[in-house]
Write a structure and sequence with these properties.
Layout: H1 2-37, H2 40-70, H3 76-109, H4 137-163, H5 167-195, H6 197-206, H7 210-243
Helix pairs in contact: 1-2, 1-3, 1-4, 2-3, 3-7, 4-5, 4-7, 5-7
Length: 254
């Protein structure tokens, strides 16, 4: 009888964790749409969804703690699963926080766009020899969207590995996170190029908000990269409760 009750509790915890992952994935998807469309209604939806994510994270944690207290003694995979769930829920919630943070930054940026934003671009001579295009604010936004899509795919893969109890898939995510890092550094390079005085000073003559926007884009890139790190951390915990072993040290949350 006790095992039947525990199995039911474990199933509920797993189901609610997947629901939390879906809420977070929706928030991330919406903020990426907002990044492209500048739809302020989407900004508000993402910010509002943060409340539901926080509430569900708390509920998932409480379910796990209740099982840990009432279903004793526990051992093996059940114990590893229940002790991993609060950490997994926390990382999911932090991804939601990053999506909300991006939405808030986009909202702050809304009045900073002008008709003169196309003046903020670097000259072709400033690029690396292999570059065949001029860096512009539009090209940076495009790369940010690509970075965000990479993170979104990473999150989908992470939740699939959790739902399927697939340690092999979780381990593969660690390799895919390298692509997130590569895209992040490409965006960061372009942004730092735009912020150098040779480009920034002329741009400010046409657009007084140019540097402020570039700083916000840099923050957005960082938040997307951090979301990818949280996916990696979740995969570490998935492998732990399935295989008993932590093979790498989880990345410290910001």
């Amino acid at each position: 009888m006790a095992r039947t009750i525990l199995d039911a509790q474990l199933h509920e915890i797993s189901t609610e964790t997947i629901k939390l992952g879906n809420l977070v994935a929706t928030a991330l998807s919406q903020v990426l749409q907002a990044l492209q469309s500048r739809d302020q209604a989407l900004y508000s939806q993402v910010i509002e969804s943060d409340k539901a994510i926080d509430i569900l994270r708390f509920e998932v944690e409480q379910l796990a703690f209740r099982s840990l207290m009432l279903q004793q003694p526990l051992g093996g995979r059940d114990l590893r699963f229940l002790t991993s769930i609060p950490k997994i829920a926390s990382h999911l919630e932090r991804i939601g926080d990053n999506a909300t943070g991006i939405a808030k930054l986009l909202l702050l940026m809304a009045p900073l766009h002008t008709l003169n934003t196309n003046h903020f671009q670097s000259s072709p001579s400033a690029q690396k020899p292999l570059s065949d295009h001029t860096i512009t604010e539009d090209s940076i936004v495009s790369k940010l969207f690509d970075l965000g899509q990479e993170v979104y795919l990473l999150l989908q893969g992470t939740m699939h590995a959790f739902e399927q109890n697939d340690a092999h898939a979780a381990r593969k995510i660690w390799q895919e996170d390298d692509m997130v890092d590569v895209r992040y550094h490409l965006v960061r390079y372009d942004l730092m190029t735009m912020l150098t005085s040779i480009h920034a000073v002329p741009a400010l003559k046409h657009d007084s908000h140019a540097l402020q926007r570039m700083t916000y884009w840099l923050w957005i890139a960082h938040k997307l990269e951090r979301a990818g790190d949280h996916c990696t951390n979740i995969c570490e915990h998935i492998a732990f409760f399935i295989e008993r072993v932590m093979t790498i040290q989880p990345i410290k949350a910001e």
